[in-house]
Amino acid sequence: MSLLDVMIPLEITAPKPEFRLLAPLILVLLGACLSILVETTSKRGPRYGAQLIVSIVTLGAALALLVRNWIIGNAQITMLGSIAVDGPTWFAWGALLVFGLMTALLFAERRVSGGQSQFTAMGSSVPGSPLEREAIAARAEHTEVFPLLLFSLFGMMLFASANDLLVMFVALEIFSLPLYLLAGLARRRRMLSQEAALKYFLLGALSSAMFLYGTALLYGYAGSFQLRAIDQAISAGGQGRGLLLAGMGLVAVGLLFKIGAVPFHSWTPDVYTGSPTPVTAFMAICTKFAAVVALMRVFYVGLGAARWDWQPLLAVIAVLTMCVGALIALTQTDVKRMLAYSSIAHAGFILVAIVGANTAANGLLPGGIGSTSAVLVYLAAYGLATLGAFGLVTMVRKAGGEATSLAAWQGVGRKSPALGALMALFLLSFAGVPPTAGFIGKLLAFTAAWKGGYPWLVGIAILMSLVAAFIYIRMIVVMFFRNPVDDEVEVVSPSWMTWLVVILGAVGTLVFGIYAQPLLDLAGQAGVFLR
Question: pLDDT tens digits, the chain, 531 residues: what are they?
Fold first, then answer.
């Protein structure tokens, strides 16, 4: 008898992808590849317009397919259990596509920079070098920011829907690598931008390594990368609890880093300040949205049976994140840096709702709003205000570029009442003041924690919300009740693209603050993860 006679035949099951369900994801990837083709084949003149059209058409078509799929329904876990197309996935994909469309318009803005792109003419050149001056004189620019945007969005969509830790890691790298590049491509303050990109890359690589190590430990505990199998292993009470706790902690580090939670937040203020403002806006909401949905999927689906281990840990991190973000924001004299620490504080408020782990079955409202739905509403409200606020930041400028110091914003509301009023609206939404969407988001988030048995955490969250409100009110006072101190500062009117982003953000913030039922209905339908 030969060795071949006794060998067990290897059977590999081919995946049967549900192309209809995965169509929005696939279309974004194809659009990114097409954008690369446009970048390499088209001439410099028409390249900018072609890239913008490809991005808008790709994201718009993907959004249309997503709406169709959501209406038809048939949520399921596909690709051999590695991708879950369920309610949270549909909501996250829809939000990422909408915010991606708005970001593409911000990327395309030229008028505020005197007809030039907000991105550097040549990212590989040394700042201040003759090569850079030649590129500027030739009016070269980085139109490859559009394919980078699409690839990053594809990774975020895959990350939010991944039902397998290994697929989640691959998605993490897909959306992170373009962001590392985009962070270093600012036209102004090049050294600061490159420093931001380097810090983001080094710390991001460390967090990714920790996530991967944690994934390996959880595989050692459960014998599978799939979230359902991990949950079943925990419920069965298998051996090696040390592997479980260590893997849980390391995976949490990788996810909390992307959210910007303390003590994994140190990259946030530097990267937000140094990156081009459209990139900062994109990171502030889209990265956070994808990471939060992935965090909930891992902890609710994969680690739900160990909730008594991770709930106290996340509660402590939520308290630290809220306190550090709100208190340090009080000391900031730069608008972008202040918004960065504000983003950290909002990450803490989101964690408050996640800690509550209140299910839709025990809903907070008649629509079946649980913790997952509350977080989705919060993220949608925060995203509308964030993109609108950063769009306005690009309009306040002086000779050296954007004027982001707090002193430069003194009297801006008097110079441009429209800009001041819109910025005040977004700041009030950040503060959670009615009738804004931010108020609805905070109300649901805090109620989720209260219903989940964490009233003390809600008390701290309300206190930190009051502290954060002082930050935003101070900014409003600076804009309207202080005299300008820098005569070089001016409010530059942007093109229709930036105005469209700002107006959409303002309308959404007001409409969902006054009549939130449509948003609540969508979030209620998207409140359950498939297992």
Answer: 455 555 555 566 666 667 889 999 999 999 999 999 998 888 877 888 899 999 999 999 999 999 999 998 888 998 888 999 999 999 999 999 999 999 999 999 888 877 777 887 666 666 666 766 666 666 667 788 999 999 999 999 999 999 999 999 999 999 999 999 999 888 878 888 889 999 999 999 999 999 999 999 999 999 999 999 999 999 888 677 889 999 999 999 999 999 999 999 889 999 999 999 999 999 999 999 999 999 999 999 999 888 888 999 999 999 999 999 999 999 999 999 999 999 999 999 999 999 987 765 455 554 557 889 999 999 999 999 999 999 999 999 887 678 888 888 998 998 899 999 999 999 999 999 999 999 999 999 999 999 888 999 999 999 999 999 999 999 999 999 988 877 788 888 898 999 999 999 999 999 999 999 999 999 988 888 988
Q: Provide the edge-to-edge strand list for the sheet that holds 490-491.
A: 401-402, 396-398, 490-491
Is the model's pTM score more than 0.85?
yes
- 422, 426, 432, 435: CA torsion to nearest 10: 40
Q: Is 405 helix (H, G, I), strand (E, B) or coil?
A: strand
- Choose among 207, 193, 335: nearest CA to 261: 207
Q: What secondary structure letter does DSSP report for 286?
A: I
Q: Angle 477-259-84 (CA atoms, 0-180°, nearest 5)?
A: 130
Radius of gyration over every alpha carbon of the chain, rounded to an integer in angstroms: 23
68 Cβ contact partners less than 8 Å away, ≥ 6 residues apart: none
- C-alpha span between 84 and 76 (Å, rounded): 6
Both structure tokens of 4: 């071949």
Please tell me the distance from the alpha carbon of residue 150 to that of residue 103, in angstroms, as a whole number. Answer: 11
Helix axes 19-41, 44-72, angle to 10 degrees: 180
Residue 429 CA from chain centroid, whole number: 17
Distance of alpha carbon 496 from alpha carbon 106, whole angstroms: 10
